[in-house]
Here is the input.
Amino acid sequence: QERRLQIIDLTGTEPLGTIAEVEQIGPRKMLDALVIAPCTGNTLAKMAHGITDSVVTMAAKAHLRNRRPLVIGLATNDGLGTNAANLGQLMNRKHVYFIPFGQDNPAEKTNSLVSDMRLLGDTVQHALDGEQLQPVLINHH
Here is the structure.
């Protein structure tokens, strides 16, 4: 409830909270860009395979139908494991952009990938211009 009130205070609008509500993002062309951050491995996999059983995945699908940027900020312990294939699929999909990412702790979490959220603004600006901010693979040291 507190988070919802913060969103209303910041944006002046009621947040969308159901699959039916976010499905309208597409037909109404509500957004210039959609940011999903942090994006878990589970959400990444669902988006790669077109599964729309959550508010987030339906919002992504509805938004992409307008050929507008979807910006993803990774936060997954399995980005270099099973989810590597899903990451590859989305990296090659039109209108999908990534906040630059890298291994956050390769010694202890060998498959983990995390985006550098400080690059969110620059990533969105580039995405609105149809470009992926480079380099997309970064060193987190």
Observations:
- DSSP finds seven helices and five strands in the chain.
- The first helix runs from residue 2 to 11.
- Residues 2-128 form a domain with the Rossmann fold fold (CATH 3.40.50.1950).
- The beta strands are 34-39, 70-76, 96-98, 101-102, 113-115.
